Hints:
Strand content: under 5%
Distance between the termini: 56 Å
Largest sheet: 2 strands, antiparallel
Mean pLDDT: 92
Shape: globular
Structural class: mainly alpha
Amino acid sequence: xxxxxxxxxxxxxxxxxxxxxxxxxxxxxxxxxxxxxxxxxxxxxxxxxxxxxxxxxxxxxxxxxxxxxxxxxxxxxxxxxxxxxxxxxxxxxxxxxxxxxxxxxxxxxxxxxxxxxxxxxxxxxxxxxxxxxxxxxxxxxxxxxxxxxxxxxxxxxxxxxxxxxxxxxxxxxxxxxxxxxxxxxxxxxxxxxxxxxxxxxxxxxxxxxxxxxxxxxxxxxxxxxxxxxxxxxxxxxxxxxxx
Length: 243
């Protein structure tokens, strides 16, 4: 069987890409071009950012089942993350991206390959509930404790937070910095929430007539890699013209 294509999922992914491009355009204006916009640092902007990454990660876990070449796809996405890290390190190290969302999605896809048979043994409803609860439980692991959005349940040993390898797992050292940070913990559990969501609901979502948006979703990796240079270039040209 070849790769299954759910065009409704492409549309959802495309809508999320448009939202992400708008969010990153705002980020560029505030942090690169010096726009004074307090709202962008508010809880509302945080919820906007979280809606984007939650959707992408859930969709990626859901769509893991729809292709045959999981290793090839995982390596391609992980390589895209490495490319983003290399470019930001060379071009603007003060805004370095390390362990960004592409790195996470590639690593989660690759990790799921050897664990697939084990994950399949868990009933879909139990797997869905368990994965999401584990995501909530480990949501603040980057900050040194178990808990969700400021609710502290259990402090974790500081000896776990040592270097860039532990940062990839979810335990960043005190000096760690990345403008886009998505470690395996907690986010792999949200990826697996999408994995189990597919097992519960394998039908295509309703289609929306948004051809351009759907096309963006169909080529999401390429759009992700290209959007930030294009957005920056457009904003630079506009700011230069308005001088």
